[in-house]
Fold this sequence. Notes:
isomerase
Amino acid sequence: MKLDVLVVGAGFAGCVVAERLASSGKSVLVIDRREHIAGNAFDKQDAAGVLVHQYGPHIFHTNAPHIVEYLSRFTDWRPYEHRVLSSTDGKLYPMPINRTTINSLYGLSLDEAGIAAFLKSVREKRDRIENSEDLVLSSIGRDLCDRFFRNYTRKQWGLELSQLSATVAGRIPVRTNDDDRYFTDTFQKMPAEGYTSMFQNMLNHPNITLELGTSFQQVASRMQAAEIYYSGQIDEFYNFRFGLLPYRSLRFEHEHLPGTKYFQQVGTVNYPNDHDFTRITEFKHLTGQKHAGTSIVREYPQSQGDPYYPIPTPENQARYEQYKQLAAADKHVHFIGRLAEYRYYNMDQVVAAALNLMKNSLR
């Protein structure tokens, strides 16, 4: 069987690519090895009727108007600004670290200038920033690092801060004001009917055929596609020729609490120093849903399981570069997305990359 385009993966990357190609007149087959669309952003009602994110919280935020304009074709939005608290010594503090965090933790009453001076006094000077530990210690000093970052990193990544690229810690800002929003992007909203509904609308095109529970290997033997857009693991595509690209996985423990209006004050609470899990998310904060009970999820990082986070170390990046060279020679195969590019993308970054790829491909 011949077709114009095969898209592997029905998450953000694959669905954007499929929609754009289908709208240009091409026939597109979208496959996914899972039994559902939307990738890790998949959401559904649990047994109690609460809308939950099956693979942990997905909070949409961006500063790019063209991404909002594009996705707004497929969904309405509800306002939501994500807030996170972090537990240390049995108390909860705003995360990212801000003026409230420092004043509450140390019993101070500093203004913004005072917080800036405090941080300057505790920072550990580094001539070169070579890893996440260098970045954190040079930004907030050792005590704050140990309370909020060091053990969380051990749990989340199975590595020390000193073993991780500075890009990991660089994702989390430090503030001298009282802004307790986790993100400061100009656009912070959630799909009004959920992510899965948005993806269904994206794939609702006469030129798109969808096959779920189907792997690339199953399709490759029976179909010939002029173009392939691949959003799976790039090392798997090349049969692990240069070895395995490691990923960090997660185990999700979902729980419904009947008769509990809210379990916690904010959408997510981090537990850097206690418990085997890293955080608890309560979905009613995210969705605005009204329900007599509430549903939460605990996240337990692990080394085995579905791939979620590329592990950013120099060794892993060097191995990826070998696969990238192979990919550059495959002119009819295009690699897009977090797994295919071995990159820690945010959702809006995946959409931007996919739209940019389509802009160049459809000229």
